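Kindly review this record before class:
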Amino acid sequence: MRQATGTPPTRPGKTKKPKGAPPETGSAALANRPPPLSVDNPPTPEEVYHGPKHQPYDAACGFEIEDGFQRFNACNDAFARAQWDSRVRSDKAIAWLKSMFINGIGVRNTEGYRRRDFAIRNAAWVGANLLIERNLHEERHEGFLDDLTAYAPPAPEKEPVDDPAEMAAQLKQAAKIFGADLIGITSTDLRWHYTRRFNAKTMTEKDNVDCENLPHCIVIGTEMPGKVIQTMPSALGGVAAGFGYSKDGLCLMSIAQFIRNMGYQAVASLNDTAQCVPYAIQAGLGEYGRHGLVITPEYGPRLRFGKIFTDLPLTHDTPKSFGVKEFCDLCRKCADACPPKAIPQGEPDGAFHNESNFVGIKKWNVDGEKCLGFWANQGTECGICIRVCPYNKLPDTALGRVYFRMWKKLAGGPLRKVALWLDTALGYGKRFKPDWWWTNRPGW
């Protein structure tokens, strides 16, 4: 476990501007810009968090927060480090980052990695890429490094909210129209917010968006297409991640604008600003799995999550437990199937692998460096851990839905060993050849 780093050293460009100060432009901005991040000029060290380390809902969420808990600097995310950290950066990693935008990168004469596979994978990323690209001129990489810019400001007059519970119900109704498959509401918890965030254009760090005065967090889950996940790892399988992000981004922006149109503040966030996984657990959407993903009763781990921070009065949902922790204690399928062995085999212990880990939470920590290295080597997303997860079922028949309900009851109770045996005996989690998907056209 990495130890607390104490007071971070002073480095050029780390002085924060007063809130409300106008942005610097031209030569003044260049003169005051910090030097690019590197191994010799690392991000601001993460400090032991001095806010409330424990919350009343922690036990229900399965959060075990240790005394040395540190908030995370997003510059240490494995995808950010692939750009500035020479220990992680490689030609293959950079090619992978570019491949969602530039057609043809990664194409080879191998099943699942042919031109048509990358063509559909990159088409799935269009919605997310439009978000990323729309404000690059302002050094904003929206949805992945920066929050989503508001389409319009809040209305000048607030719609009165007499009943926060009714408002929450109406919000969930609206969210379904905009494409949300799951939605939960919880309190804003600054433990999960990044201390700093990464500027991909200048390779420097910058301030995170301030959500301290937005007390509510709306968590949105959108299902990823499941049949292509069965072909992972492949470029065809990468459709799942790309379309999941594209759909999630549009859904978040629409819900956030609905809130602003009623006169309230709303900050829409995809992979930026704060961690999605603990927020989804707090909001009652699922439990934490061995593979580091949220496992939901409805879709297993087959979702993308986003969040909206707001001052719209809303009641909160409560965390739920349906036996995932106990099942993952028994099951090792994701860890056994992971090619780079990035997923831990043992008990949750919060083991520190490298700078891309959260510090001070007793949980299963996935090794982000190993995971990203495998992605880069194959030239597209992986997703094997999602494919083999026993909770990843596609019950598209009445009999299949009955079986899945019965299986979840087994998995969540004392007969979980039977559930694990059934999953293996019936052949769930096996990889289907990508050409099978093109030939048989199984759909979603």
Remarks:
- DSSP finds 17 helices and ten strands in the chain.
- The longest helix spans residues 239-261.
